[in-house]
Specification:
The chain is built from two helices and four strands, in the order E-H-E-E-H-E. With 133 residues, the chain is of the alpha/beta class. It has a four-stranded mixed beta sheet, covered by helices on one side.
């Protein structure tokens, strides 16, 4: 049950690009972590490049530009470092394939929590006592 937030500059192709980026992240989660294909919860936000609402630098020698995409994924703990590395690589490759985003501009953070940290509706903690994804 990942929850995904994607922030990117908008513009003329903002909505189409955001949709493509959302598909890229979802497909990568399904392919690398085995997330069910109908388990999609995303917030996609386009930012006005002129407004300067996204800020970034060339940290660790990675040159970023206005094509930057910030991806924040929250999900339950339990994946290995190797699985996470595969996820990051797949997101970058699919972002390039689907949205034309240079892989150097794909910035991903992953935050893990426990089953008790989720309510999927009806005010219930559906994962408590469950072994689901």
């Amino acid at each position: 049950m990942p929850f995904v937030r994607i922030d990117a500059h908008g513009g003329r192709t903002g909505t189409g690009r955001l949709d493509a980026l959302g598909r890229a992240v979802h497909d990568a989660l399904v392919e690398t972590l085995g997330i069910p294909s109908d388990d999609r919860f995303q917030v996609l936000t386009a930012h006005d490049p002129a407004g300067g609402t996204l800020r970034y630098d060339d940290y660790l020698g990675v040159h970023r530009d206005e094509g930057i995409v910030l991806v924040a994924i929250t999900m339950r703990a339990g994946r290995t470092t190797r699985q996470k590395e595969a996820l990051y690589g797949r997101i970058a490759r699919l972002a390039e394939e689907y949205a034309g985003t240079d892989p150097r501009n794909v910035f991903v953070t992953l935050t893990e929590n426990t089953s008790a940290d989720w309510s999927l509706g009806n005010g219930l903690a559906q994962y408590v006592g469950s072994g689901s994804c």
